User: What shape does this take?
Amino acid sequence: MERFALLLKLKKKMGLSTVENCAYYIKMYLKAPGSIIQGFCKVPETGETLRYYWVEDSEGRIHDVAFGLASIWTPEVKDLKFILTKESPVGDFQKDAANDEIFETYQKNPKEFWKKITV
Assistant: This one.
């Protein structure tokens, strides 16, 4: 993940959204078939659930780009424990409208997605 973080810095792509980072990870670093998964992150200690995005490669391996980058830029998050799931939680969860919109564009109109973030 350190190499990917350096690549983002070199390409001047720091400060991208989670979905954009996942897309760049697939395109520039993974260089294999992969997809962005829209799921949920559950924090057992607090019971909190939030919308979350990660990359899953063609062999089913999970690449948690957001956590990997956060661990580099903010080392104190390394000890955070959570569970990733594709199952929708019962009850409320924290939504991320900005990333949800970016994800929808990525899924439905990839050409527009790449046009917006390569400027």
Notes: Residues 37 and 56 are 7 Å apart (CA to CA). The two ends are 24 Å apart (CA to CA).
